Amino acid sequence: MTDRSDELTVADRDRHASDPARELALDCVTAGVEAAHPAGVVADALAVEDGRLVVTTVDGRTASRDLNGYDRVVVVGAGNAAGHFAAALEGLLGDRIDGGAVVTDDPVETERVAVLPGDHPTPSEAGVESARRVRAVATDAGASDLVIGLITGGGSALLAAPAAGVGLDDLRETTDALLASGATIAEINAVRKHLSAVKGGGLARAAAPADALGLAVSDVTGDDPSVIASGPLSPDPTTYADAFAVLDRHGVGVPPAVEERLDRGVAGEVAETPGPDDPVFDGVAVRVVASARTALNAAREVAAERGYEPLVLSSRVRGEAREAAKTHAAVAEECRAAGDPVDPPAVVLSAGEVTVTLGDDPGRGGPNQEFALSAALELDAAGPDGGGVAVASVDTDGIDGSTDAAGALVDDRLAGEDGSDRDDDGPLDREAAARALGAHDAYGALDDAGALLRTGPTGTNVNDLRAVVIPAGADDSPAADE
């Protein structure tokens, strides 16, 4: 992992890191977020050799483009990390970049690429105007130019370019309904692609006949380029019919303009998004340069350095947040009881995309907060043999749901029957915590307990990251061997 000066800051860090297990859980997720920052990613994954831009992907493959073979190199992009990505790329390519524009909600200073404002997770007027400018840069590129696309998590909302007949309010209402429905990001983006002028290969269509090289920081399970930021430079395997099926499957109501757009698409009255055989992709390639695996590898290194046995459970955890938490708690209990699948002291790591299906009148929170609250209740239910297990769960962009928290750090002593088990952080009453979880109001309960992790925008987004720290039991401690 490349060292950087702009390390992630966690508010009230000393209070959160009040014992070794909690400190390690926090350090694991912090290291993961830092490893996925574009400054380190560009240093580790990109290089210029004899005038060629060489790209190393997350799976170790390489690709290159001869920068000297193009009249101009322009940069476009969108996402939570797009501004930092553009700044890091400028540091590498310097005056080889002839201009460009990216849209983000985490702006930074740049010299050659305009960093434009947008909003996440719900699109805004600012995002619409910024998307227009990004699309104009791509459209202006000629056959002898190279368009470098910086594609990162959050780009679906930030690159807001409503299709003809669809207004911004229509997009906002549809986005909010999809996010509350429990649909996966792939399902949500199948709908978004068919309501946009740039998603689902639309930006590649605008850039043609220029060549394009997409550099993606993935925030989606499986790292499918057609799903990351709704695949603006990638062929779209989904159809208008698929988009309708998502709405039907999750019972999502949409504005009349959206329904009419999809109806016309199914009827063949509106052109489909470009598919794999479309010639607009003849000079286009998209390479994933950072993902949840990037974060997991860094977290694993931290655990090993502290003398804990690291186990990556999966980089593809998905489903309802509260249910995924129960599985992680069960794994921690099995480690303590039987030394399987790993013997303590151990750190169980996972990443992926958990979701929350909201009912009527939900409270505040996000998937990682709901995961943490559910884990605290499950670990407490295991009784006194929990052994100080700590759980940190964060969204790596620093924004869990629509709150000011990245996630939460809890342990197996957080929830007591009467709130008496802990008195340092304002412990949770078990019954009140269970009610908060049932009402999807994890934010308030965790905030009262001092468990919320606040980082502010992190400059990256590789989705959720979790660390479950299982210390050695009393019989395994160094003192027991003396």
Automatic annotation (TrEMBL):
Sequence ranges assigned to domain MOFRL in this UniProt record? 347-464
Q: Which UniProt keywords apply?
A: Pyruvate
GO cellular component labels: cytoplasm
Gene3D superfamilies, A to Z = Glycerate kinase, MOFRL-like N-terminal domain, MOFRL domain
Organism this protein belongs to? Halorubrum tebenquichense DSM 14210
Residue stretches making up the MOFRL-associated domain: 25-262
Q: What is this protein called?
A: Hydroxypyruvate reductase
Q: Name one GO molecular function term.
A: glycerate kinase activity
Q: Return the InterPro entries for the record.
A: GK-like_C_sf, GK_N_sf, MOFRL, MOFRL_assoc_dom, MOFRL_protein
Database matches in SUPFAM superfamilies: GckA/TtuD-like
